[in-house]
């Protein structure tokens, strides 16, 4: 095709030809690549997830293996550091890098499953409350108000003190204490959606209430649910680290970033890396999740002009 013939092509044809290569990519991936924030969050979360899954093959040492002669060894790039320990060792001679790698497993497991528990409760309450209204709505909303009246951290501390710390206990407690935000947002959307024509049409042909809620309303509120779940996961990881720091979360010998912070605080003056590196791991992971959540919010926001 000559340059003259090319110039005669319409702008739409030219745009289609230019975008043909990128159209093969999934839509979500093309939207993700347009957002620096979303791409950064996705890369961080992918690295943390891969690290957690392949921890036994990535970690240079067993996280509980003690090297007594190398206790409190500094990172290899500092004076007195050894090339055997990239980030140094802790007060018992355990490799800090290996412990941080294994600690990612606990953070992701607690964050993911606590969000699943909270999301399942909040989604169900929000759908039922918004759909039926009346006294059912009043009962659920007063329950929501009761949870909001008690600080989450106080409620969590009381339950953990009564039941005792542990991985499963922590997941259930964090899930039960964080479902309120899901319920409030989902309920407000259902109150609007249930007056739409497609819901009235479903009722007119005799579709059951359960089918309407979970087959027709649920897909329409799932975007908001996804955004809340993503941002809530970051908060949950911080909560787990805080509780482990206080000794009420994950217990040794299971490795957790919060527990490493608790140990490292006693050596800040002599070996700052014991607390700094786990703290950086928590910060970077939560920032990655928040970045990804912000991108999801922009993608699902119909008023957004970026996408």
Structure description:
- The protein has 307 residues and is mostly helical.
- The chain has one domain (33-300): MetI-like (MetI-like fold), CATH 1.10.3720.10.
- Helices cover 69% and strands 0% of the residues.
- The protein contains 14 helices and no strands.
- Helix 11 (197-204) packs across helix 12.
- The two termini are 33 Å apart.
- Residues 1-22 have low confidence and may be disordered.
The ordered H/E elements are: HHHHHHHHHHHHHH
Hey, roughly how much beta strand do the residues contain?
under 5%
Strand tally is 0
How far the N terminus sits from the C terminus, by CA atoms, comes to: 33 Å
In DSSP terms, counting alpha (H) and pi (I) runs of 4 or more, how many helices?
14
Q: TL;DR of this structure?
A:
The chain has 307 residues and is mostly helical. It is built from 14 helices and no strands. It has a single domain, classed as MetI-like (MetI-like fold).
Helices and strands in order:
Layout: H1 3-7, H2 11-18, H3 27-34, H4 36-53, H5 55-58, H6 96-132, H7 134-149, H8 152-163, H9 167-176, H10 180-193, H11 197-204, H12 209-245, H13 257-264, H14 273-300
Helix pairs in contact: 4-6, 4-14, 6-7, 6-9, 6-10, 6-12, 8-9, 10-12, 11-12, 12-13, 12-14, 13-14
